[in-house]
Amino acid sequence: MRDDLDDLLGIDTDDPEQRLALDLVKSDRHLLLRLVALRGDRGLTQAEVGRRMGTTQPAVAAFERADADPKLSTIRRYALAVGASVQHSVTSRISSGSSVVSRVTRSVTDSSSRSKRVKVEASSSLLSESK
Fold first, then answer.
1. Which H or E run includes 101?
2. Could you tell me the end-to-end alpha-carbon distance of the chain, in angstroms, rounded to an integer?
3. Hey, where are the domains in the chain?
């Protein structure tokens, strides 16, 4: 089914750039799911998180929807409201030959216990030939 959808959308999963883009989308979604899970673990309602963020319960519900694509500042405010922090690291470097290797790392830290660190990482590297 996934291959049919990829074909329909014109996504070439053999293309390292497109594969990295898909991995990053999955990574973003996992990060948001982890934050929502932390809210549930702490017994916080959407209304309480909204109050802590200075927004409304419907805005929090929109943030938590599967098709949401929130801004980084909103993700950080939500994380703070549920007692977590989000850290991002982006690195790019030129490697041997003409390939570019990129890696994006994101992590969610549960503020109530520094030992509970969850790393969400786009594990694919972007390898593209320089033209």
1. strand 100-110
2. 34
3. 2-121
| Amino acid at site 35 | L
Strands 84-94 vs 100-110: parallel, antiparallel or unpaired: antiparallel
Cite the DSSP H helix spans in the chain. 2-9, 16-41, 46-53, 57-64, 72-81
Does pTM surpass 0.85? no
| Tens-place pLDDT, residues 63-92 | 999 889 999 999 999 999 999 988 877 776
Q: Look up the CATH superfamily of 2-121.
A: lambda repressor-like DNA-binding domains (1.10.260.40)
Helix or strand (DSSP H, E) at 88? strand 84-94
